[in-house]
Design a protein that fits this description.
Layout (H helix, E strand, L loop, with lengths): L9 E7 L3 E8 L8 E2 L3 E6 L3 E7 L2 E7 L5 E3 L4 E6 L5 E8 L2
Antiparallel strand pairs: 1-2, 2-9, 3-8, 4-7, 4-9, 5-6, 5-8
Length: about 100
């Protein structure tokens, strides 16, 4: 069975210097980042509420985004992030380089 390709989430880098990289991520309904491994510790700041589907090497995880409820993850996280909501999702990702 062939799966229909998902649309790509749209990253916009806002800051990229020696200390941090700040990226706004916009996800149309069903859009994905594609599989990736984080090279830095990072913080996610939700701009919209919604539900994400995280495909991970050990299985899928559902996660809720809530405006104003930031969270952090450590270097090495591997996943594909998918908008599992019926509307656009937006968050800011701050990667800490040092």
């Amino acid at each position: 069975m062939t799966q229909t390709p998902r649309a790509a989430a749209v990253p916009t880098v806002q800051v990229d210097n020696e200390a941090v990289k700040v990226t706004e991520w916009r996800f149309a309904p069903g859009a994905e980042t594609g599989w990736h491994t984080h090279g830095y510790d990072y913080v996610v700041v939700p701009v919209t509420d919604g539900r994400l589907l995280l495909e991970t090497p050990t299985g899928n995880i559902e996660a809720e985004l809530r405006i104003g409820q930031s969270y952090s993850r450590n270097i090495g996280v591997e996943h594909n992030v998918i908008n599992d909501s019926p509307r656009e999702l937006v968050f800011i990702e701050v990667e800490v380089k040092r």
